[in-house]
Amino acid sequence: MSTETTTQSPIRLAVIIGSVRHERFADAITGWLLTELAAIDSLEVDPIDLADIDLPLRGTRPGGTETVISGRLHAADAYLVVTPEYNHSFPAALKNAIDWHFTEWAYKPVAFVGYGAGSGGIRAVEQLRLIFPELRATTIRDAVLLSAPWTRLGPNGYEGTEGERGALAATMTELGWWARTLRAGRVAERVSAA
Q: I need a surface site. Which of 76, 84, 128, 130 has the fewest CB within 10 A?
């Protein structure tokens, strides 16, 4: 299933929120992130909050299966995964969501926003970098790593530093390049097959 029209269309970015805990810090980070992303004209952002998605832990088949979010994942040109670091890794709900899908990820770029205590979520991000290429997705080099972000929670929510905003800008520049390039490849492949 593909809804791509041209290589000049805005980039459809699925922001996947990986934490499903109650009273999670992901809400503050996602609020900041969506505000920052709203300033980028060439994006259409679709937040996919795994806390709102019912994906059972049993029943997955090799090659993925149709789920309530598969259409949204298919429609995306790129993914931005927001993940905490739990016990030196990423949440089980995030791995479950990845495993429920297969073709949705193929030939699309994935970027990461990680957060955690001292590490800023780097161990979770590095493990995710091992998984996505198996699904034919391209993980990009740049990432946003937020170390102890709860120390920057203000009256208006999460207050990113200048360095964090710079890291997000660099990540989105690289993600945008990959999204446009891989979308052009997918469009060309579809046209040649027609």
A: 130
